[in-house]
Amino acid sequence: MTEPFLKNRTRFTSSLKNELVPLFNQLAGQTRIPKTNLLDEAIEDLLKKHTVELSQNKQKN
Which positions ≥6 away from 11 have C-beta within 8 Å? Predict the structure, then answer.
């Protein structure tokens, strides 16, 4: 089976602490926000915390 083409996203692999997985699943279920959108929000907040400008990356792509 072939992988679907992702035009506006990039697939990557990572791992989470075991205790975070059920909480993450619960948050996604309660908010009905897809996990991918929750991860986008979390990464954007992390980048802001570490003063990485999001506009820098957009200009390079």
Answer: 3
Both tokens assigned to 14? 């990572």
Which pLDDT score is estimated for 57?
56
Scanning the structure block, which residue is given the tokens 């989470």?
A: 16
Supply the DSSP string of 13-56, one letter for each residue.
-----TTHHHHHHHHHHHHT--HHHHHHHHHHHHHHHTT--HHH
Residues 38/28, Cβ–Cβ less than 8 Å: yes
What's the predicted TM-score (pTM) here?
A: 0.75
3-class secondary-structure state, position 58: helix
Residue that the structure tokens 């279920």 belong to = 29
